[in-house]
Amino acid sequence: METTAVRTERRCKQCGSNCTTDFQTETCIHIPGRENLAVPAVFVFPKLAICLDCGAVSDFLIPADHLVELRRYVRPQSSPA
After folding, report:
1. Greatest CA span in the chain, whole angstroms?
2. Residue that wins the pLDDT comparison between 44 and 77
3. Residue 68 burial class via C-beta count within 10 angstroms: exposed 0-12, middle 13-18, buried 19 and up
């Protein structure tokens, strides 16, 4: 299966090329820490904008509903005083 590179108005942040293509992906995020070994992984399905000239990933956004799931397991670190 072949896809065609799409030249867009969006520029690669790494090399400046306008040859980026969106790819649908599947990512499995594991919650860090030994105490979380039993916590199920969070599967997310973000679109990645990949530069076909240099290979940089220019956009990677976690959908809001998956952010809620990640926040459930991760406690924010307190700021140093």
Report:
1. 55
2. 44
3. exposed
What residues are paired with 49 via a beta bridge? 22, 59
Q: State which H helix or E strand residue 51 sits in.
A: strand 47-51
At residue 3, the pLDDT reads 56
pLDDT at 28: 93
- Three-state DSSP at 43 gives strand
> Considering only CA atoms, which of 60, 30, 33, 57 is closest in space to residue 45?
60
Q: Sketch the domain layout of the chain as residue ranges.
A: 20-73
The token duo for 15 is 């090399």
pLDDT at 60: 79
Return the DSSP state at 72. Answer: H
Q: What is the mean pLDDT of the chain?
A: 81
For 10-35, the DSSP string reads: PPPTTT--SBEEEEE--EEEPPPSGG
